[in-house]
Structure formats: C-alpha cells, structure tokens
Amino acid sequence: MSESGATMLGDSRDCGVIGLVPALMLVPRLLQMRHRVLDWCKKARPQLVVLCDWGAFNARLLQPLQALQIPTLYYFPPGSWRKKGARGLSIAPFVSRIATPFEWSAKRLQEAGANAEWVGHPILETARPLPDQSDERLQLRREFGVEGHEKLVALMPGSRSLEVRAIAPHLAGTVDLLRKRDSSTRFVVAVPKNTAPRVRPFFPDVMIVEGRATDLLMACDAAVVKSGTSTLEAAAADAPQVVVYDAPAALRAQWRLMGGTKKIPFVAMPNIIVEREIVPELLGDRCRPQQIVDALTPLLHDSSQRQAMREGYVEVRRALGTELPQSATKRMAAIIEEMVEAASSTRTRNQ
Description:
Rossmann fold, 12% strand
C-alpha cells in the first residue's frame, strides 16, 4: 500500500496472533491505532471509508464513523463464512454498504437490515485450474524443477513463527518418508515474501519460493496446506490437498477446554463451504508425517479420492462466484465509485 502512494496510519501485518495472552498484549497498540485512525477521519473527512476483514478492529470503527456521518463500505465482513447464528450480524445497523464473498452471507446480512451484496471472492482472479498438459502449467512445473512424469508436492507450512515451529517439522518428516518411497517426487515449499529464512532450517534441501503460492498450487500434483485461506486457494486452483494444523501443547489444551472441536465441525474453508469433508483435515495429534503420507499418497495418483475432491471443488468455486457477471474486484471498484459519487453529491447539496 505504501509503495502505491497511500498514506499509512498503521501496519497490521504482525497483528495476527494465536492464543489469549498474545492477543491481550496487542490491545494497547490496537487502541492507539484506533485513536489514530478516527482522529485522521475527523480531520480529513473522507468521502468513504473502506474496511476489509479484521472484524476485531474494523467493526469497532463503524459506530464512531457513523456518528461522524462518514459513509462506510465493509469488504469481507466478520464471519462471512458462517451460515448460522447471530455472530457477524451486529454490524448491520452501523455500516452503509457491505460487499461479501459468499451468497449466504449477503442474505443473512440483508435479513439483519444491512445493504449487503454478494460480489464473489477475489481468489478466483488469481488461482484457477490449468489443464494438465497446458503450456502454462508445464512451464510452471519446469520453473519448479519438475520434468516429465515426476510428481510435484506443494508444501505450505504458514508464515507465523509459532505455526512454523509446530507444523514445519511434520512436513519435513513427510518429505523424508515420501522420498524413501519414490526418490523422483519433487517438493517445493511456498511462503509469503520475506519469510523464507523462517522455514529454511526445516527444509535445508528443498526448494523454497516466496510469493508464488498460487503458481505452485496451479502446477503441483497435490499439496499439504496449513489450515487458512490457502486451502481455498488450493480449491480454486484445483490442487488436491491435505489440510494440516498443529500448535504447541498448551494452545491445543486451551482449544479443547474452550470446546473448539464442538463449536466448529470443520476448519478447512472448502469443507466449511460445502458442509462436508471433501479435503482431509489432520489436526493436532493427527498432524504427523505418517498420517500425512497416508492421506497424500492417493491424491498423487488418479484415485477415486482425487476425483471426488475435484468434484467437490466445483461446488466450492461456484460458491466463490464463478457464475457472477463480474469479478469481485471489478464489482468492488464499481461500488466504491457509486458511493464516492453519492457522497460528493450530498456534500455539494449541503454547501
């Protein structure tokens, strides 16, 4: 954002934490950031404030922005993936318009009184299925060091230090086991930009790429993916996947005590969307090399599991908006133009 010329009021890149204590430690910093944002809005009087995701912070800006009579557009509202319950609906009275990635989210918010619209998911604009023998896919595979009929496995261990320390050793163990079975299988680790040094100690002899997760998912034969948005990206790219997650023992105990497994039947977004398990989830004590290998092996071949997963992906991509007339980004741009023009007209009339 700063490189594109935006004025930065705060940086949320390292605000994603896991566990109660780290979250509490962030509170003073977030309160300062909130004050800074609202103070700027009071002085600058923007024609529109666009909020994106991060409900714990952004949702708390809505009431004061409404009091300032500043229009708001919420992109990716909190809990948009939920299909039941009241969570995520409390923003309805305070936001001017909402653009949500899921159709059911738009309907729920509309019923709560919000001006909400289903715009689809922007992940469809970058990740897409490529025919096995297409020039684009073969070129990507060559870039990742794969030739001929060699199998390519994508490894996505996440980027947060805590998660990497918990998950990467299991993925490294998976590499060792699969190499013993077939030395021709290729592995590539994908991480966000500037995080390769964090995972390098766990994968000393495996290619690591930064900022190329989408390319890798479109090129691979199968993937092992840390639970999160990347599981949705794999579905958009039609990459068969095993979803994994692990955390230190203390956090696992905290999750059990809070009844997490009862509250949320699935953690992988493809499963949440279709409300059944189409991708295997290996979580906690089940996130171990042998279990990962057992789940991954059928996906590397033309198996019934691989075919069934890809059939499920068609449902997922439809839910993301493949049949909408515009991409999410184009529709968002149009909504922003509409709202800015409306705000300009209102200000002109009031002068």
